[in-house]
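Example 3.2
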Amino acid sequence: MDNKNLCKATNILKKYDQEHLLYLYDMLSEDEKNLLVNQILHTNFEHIISLYKNSMKEEHFCLDDISPLEHLEKNDFSADEINHYVSIGEHELLNQTYAVVTMAGGQGTRLGYKGPKGTYMLDLKPQKKSLFQIMCEDIKQANLKYNIVIPWYIMTSEENDTPTKLFFEKNNYFGYPVNKIKFFKQKQLPIIDVKGKLILKEPYIIKEASNGNGDVFNSMLENGIIEDLEENNIKWIFFGGIDNVLLKNVDPLLLGLTIATNNEIASKSIFKEQPLEKTAVYCRNLGKPSILYYENIDLETSEKKDLDGKYLYREANILSHLMSFNAVKKVSREHLPYHRAYKKNTFVNSEGVKQVPEKPNTFKFEKFIFDAFSKFDDMLLLRVNPDEEFAPIKDFTSVYNPDTAKQKYKNYHYQN
């Protein structure tokens, strides 16, 4: 180990009160020592400590600043209207100016699964399908219908990038043209405990986690995806998560509506059935399109209605977003805010023993994609049927579990 680098690392840790990260240093091999010191030298301690300290300040959220975000309901359109808007969207698709971004940086930890979440297998008959295969088949269906090949960009993380690429290679890219798939990595941030101390994943590795789906725009810029989109004359980009097995990556209705209404961004929503369900809903904040987090929703707000008896704050986010290229390029240079999440994380203690906590013990900081919407004056919001478009897989304990997703997938695909 270069003593100069060790000295630098020690001084950095002393400055930020993180000396505990070197407590096990003498137990490590030379390679492990190099790994740890290198990571310390390349960690932005100022940034993570600043996020931690700022998150401790009391937030002042004012419900008086919010107003409803107007939405359209798919069920309200006549067949002729749907055909009209679909034809507009189909015209754009045929011009081959449309791309899909799948955000797949997560692991299957909450499912008790080791590996990228996109490689999780859903037990469908007659064969099991991974979430990646389900997503791929959805896009291929549009390719076949319109005789096009949609560029597919997949956001991975430092942790799952290599296994994701190997999974695609092993499965021959599910028959998708290899030159039309591009992978890019989102960034990571260290995980910090409730006392403001970074934790160790191994005695020689600081534990980190991907920094949320809102990092997609900056990551696209830094990984050359924005440039690639521009070179390919892409004008519209769809953003979706990997875990919704009913996600419509290519919806000419949403595309046509967005174009016809002269909007740069659009999202889909579903009706929030339970007033205090832990789900974020769409709204305007100080006049701008925004999200109202469930922590800030009281019963009175959730039950507010307009003069026609329609709820004002019940349009739930389902991570199904459409943005123009210009909009994506604009927000790729913006700095979206970080949000703090209280999570359970295993860690290596001062004796080198791995600890598995029984309750949340750390903070993770994440950006959310919908925070980009406030950079615009307006957006299109379309309410859809959850039985047709929303069946995410989150864990085994909530309503968003593999069994429910499997049943909804079968109901939709085998009966339509």
